[in-house]
Amino acid sequence: MSQPQSTSTPAHGGSRHPRFAYSGRRERDPVPGAPAVEVVDLTATYPGEDRVALHGLNLRVPTGSRYALVGPNGAGKSTLLKVLAGLLQPRHGTVRIYGLPVGACHHRVAYLPQRGELDWHFPMTVERLVLTGRYVHVGWFARPGAHDRAITLQVLRRLGLEEVRERQLDQISGGQQQRVLLARALAQEADLLLLDEPLNAVDAETREIVAQVLDELARQGRTVLVATHDIGRLEGSFDDALYLSEGRETVPPPGAFPGATNGSSIR
Fold first, then answer.
1. Is the pLDDT of residue 215 over 80?
2. Which fold does the domain 63-85+107-249 belong to in CATH?
3. CB 182 within 8 A of CB 115
4. pLDDT tens digits for 219-244?
5. Is the model more confident about 247 or about 257?
6. Model's pTM, two decimal places?
7. Considering only 190-194, 258-262, 263-267, which range has the smallest mean pLDDT?
8. DSSP code string of 185-232
9. Cβ contacts of residue 74 below 8 Å, gap of 6+?
10. CA–CA distance, 133 with 221 (Å, rounded to integer)
11. Residue ranges of the domains in the chain?
């Protein structure tokens, strides 16, 4: 089967923007000079719940930075990432990705959920799951080509997963499963990566590999937003941090990595 050709439609001024085969969305270029993420007075709740999950958050993440969302379980880290990924609609406030509304540059954003949110008994090989990271470029009903498979293999090798690429998802270790999720995000070749607890309960080998990959992404000018509760490993690994507690911004604990000011009224 030949590679699908992206369709395109005329835009204002005669330029043309490709339309994604799998979703019908039009690709839009980032606003020049805009940060990777900008959140203003964000409030969010989950459907069917009265409890407010996020209260009036403000956040600005410069392009090319490594940014940590820090807090215990239930602090709101995962909720914020889901809002940025377009999986949860804000109740109030403004959210911009590269200066655009969430979803306007969907292909530029890769979201890595927590490992426990996936069904690892689903009948799929490691390589096939990582290959799905290419669907944003290929289309859901098209067959990935040689270029897509080459990128997938390259990512598998980088994360030490080449030897297990033909195994089923439930036949690999927890650390390897975490690396598979990161591999899928890397295969997308996104500019902004939203990573939910990528280092939670993993082995030393996985922790080292993931840390190296995050450093490489920073050198490549990618933007990485990482949810974590590991306060002791922030300094030297991140450029800035936002501390959360019960859905609200809070001050860093004494002696913790302070991060930059981020325009907050409490720092």
1. yes
2. Rossmann fold (3.40.50)
3. no
4. 898 999 999 987 776 767 888 999 99
5. 247
6. 0.83
7. 263-267
8. HHHTT-SEEEEESTTTT--HHHHHHHHHHHHHHHHTT-EEEEEE--GG
9. 246
10. 20
11. 63-85+107-249
| Beta-ladder partners of 125 | 168
DSSP character string of the chain: -PPPPPEEEE-GGG-EEEE-TTT-PBP-PPPTT--SEEEEEEEEE-TT--SEEEEEEEEEE-TT-EEEEE-STTSSHHHHHHHHHTSS--SEEEEEETTEETTTTGGGEEEE--GGGS-TTSS-BHHHHHHGGGHHHH-TTS---HHHHHHHHHHHHHTT-GGGTTSBGGGS-HHHHHHHHHHHHHHTT-SEEEEESTTTT--HHHHHHHHHHHHHHHHTT-EEEEEE--GGG-BTTBSEEEEEETTEE-PPPTTS-----TT-TT-
Amino acid at 235: E
